[in-house]
Amino acid sequence: MKFLKVRTFFVVLGIIMLFLLVLIIAESNSINESLNLDAKILSSQMEYSMLKTQTVSKYNYSNYNISVLFNFSIEKAVLGFKGTMIERISFRGLTSSKPIWIEVHIPDKIHFHPIYYSHIEPREIFCYKERCLLLFNPLSENGSLIFAYSFKLIDQNSNVPFNDPSYKFFGNEKVALPLGLTFIGINSAATSGEVSFLLFKAPWEDTKAFLLVNQTLTSLIVGKEKIVPTPQDNQFLLFAGRFGEIEGSAMNGTKIKIYYPSDEPFEISPQEVLNWSKKVISTYVSTYSILPSKEYYIINWNSGEANGNGFINGIIVGRWSARGRLIDRLNKRLIAHELAHSWFGGYANFGLLDEALATFSDLYVENKFGEDTYPFAENKALNSGKVPLAEITKNVPDYQNALYYKGAFVFRSLQFVLGNETFFNGLRELLRECHGKECNLTDVQNVFEKVSGQDLDWFFKEWFYSSKVPDYDVRSLSLEEKNGKYLLTFEVIDKNNFTMPLEVEVITSKEKLVKKVWIKGKARVSFELNDKPLKIILDPNEWMVNENKEYTTEGIKITVE
Ligand SMILES: [Zn+2]
Asked: Which of 116, 344, 351, 544 has minimal CB crowding within 10 Å?
């Protein structure tokens, strides 16, 4: 009996050893090479961009990329000493001989281990600062890459600039938290089959991860592989971190899940985020009569860079303002804007006009719930440069005031011209017609013309194909008194010769009268009043972008809003 037991023990041990050996061989087969980033180092961003453009045109890549965002706290990494994350990206069914292009952006604060690869070989690598472009040749139908990241600890005594928003200090721990954005871009026409993602090591067991493919977020479970078809013209994004979670529901039973950093300072109330998200989603659902998703993920993080992203079923919003300040209150506009992309950009696609329509939506919902943000938006639109909206081809900072704010205001002006019922019918028809495809400005004009039964060429010419805005003035003012009544007559002229309806308001000590007048370059307006006029306001409800001014003529205050 005793002998048998010992023999069984050795047999079992032998089997285990054999199994381990097979595992080691399998592992060394699948991960046979590693690569340190000893690349061609370029001396300027311009050189890098030029080389990248050359590479893209040489291999005729379609445009998509993979991004990875982290939300791990170094503070916990110190205590738990588990600061590494490893992920694997595998390609299946590589049919083209074109190289796989991978763009990596790793902030200096995150330590990046060598990349391990199998069945592909490096061909060319060039870098500028934290960004590298890597090209790999596929060697067989399937290949994979393994990335490992660990977080570099930074002592408060080291030279971390205190005003760098991507670091956060913890007094007691004396470490800095890297809040930077890390992304890996993959742009390859070589993959016609599938791509799989595997997050097989995360710093914490309760790590939550999300994968974005074709505008849709899905959750990714640590240790479980996710296989997705290669998107043709869209991006991947992997977002991982430690989050707290609360949930609720909006109109029509739409589920809303709020995620927020659970072990870092996060001063915004998750409940407030939930309440506002409910209002926004319910407003969009009832205004646009379309529900793009039954479930929304609202992911909040302490971002040092990209501030917000909106997808068909969720948003990722950061906390840093454009000026590098930490926003410690609910950012209503950002949440409303990114959620609007579920309709404009997710459900239906309008190219660069997505930003105009999403900004139109965020201003609409904010003002519906009592915020007065049109004067702010008009001011941005007035500083939007001299390029007509229809001629803008890139979403870059120089054009953003035009794309977001002037664009949004033009839709608001169209609402004023057509009236609420026709305008919102038009927007609903636009979403139905452009669902699952990309529409352009001509398609937008056609839909509004069809729904309104009007020729709108004049409107689109004025607002999209010219960078001018109306410049109104009040002239030739006359006031007649008769039996205690006053007849006020004046001319409104527009130096830029637009054809637009305009609200004209007159205020006396006794009343406040508003008329909607069509101005075609100019128009004569008259009001019958019970007292002398004190003030004339043009565009008091901010229906359009126009030159704003204030002056006094014949004792009457003139304000052009
Ligand atoms: Zn946007």
From this structure: 351
In the predicted model, is pLDDT for residue 385 greater than 70? yes
Residues 535, 556 contacting (CB under 8 angstroms) = yes
How confident is the model at residue 545, as a pLDDT? Answer: 98
Q: Which of 12-16, 346-350, 404-408 has the lowest mean pLDDT?
A: 12-16
Query: Residue 395: phi, psi to the nearest 5?
Result: -90, 80
Rg (CA), the chain: 30
Tell me how far the alpha carbon of residue 264 lies from the centroid of ligand 1, in angstroms: 27
d(CA 307, CA 303): 7
> If you measure from the C-alpha of residue 21 to the centroid of ligand 1, how many angstroms do you get, rounded to a whole number?
53
CA 307 to chain centre: 7
Place of tokens 């040489």: 58
Determine how many CB atoms are found less than 10 A away from the CB of residue 47.
Answer: 12
Q: Which residue segments constitute the domains of the chain, with CATH numbers given?
A: 2-227 (no CATH), 243-464 (1.10.390.10), 472-560 (2.60.40)
Residues 27 and 181: their CA atoms lie apart, in Å, by: 31
What is the 334 CA–ligand 1 centroid distance (Å)? 9
Cβ atoms of 277 and 268 closer than 8 Å: no
Task: Please give the distance, rounded to the nearest whole angstrom, from the Cα atom of residue 337 to the centre of ligand 1.
Answer: 6
| Cβ pair 226, 87 in contact under 8 A | no
The confidence score (pLDDT) of residue 222 equals 83
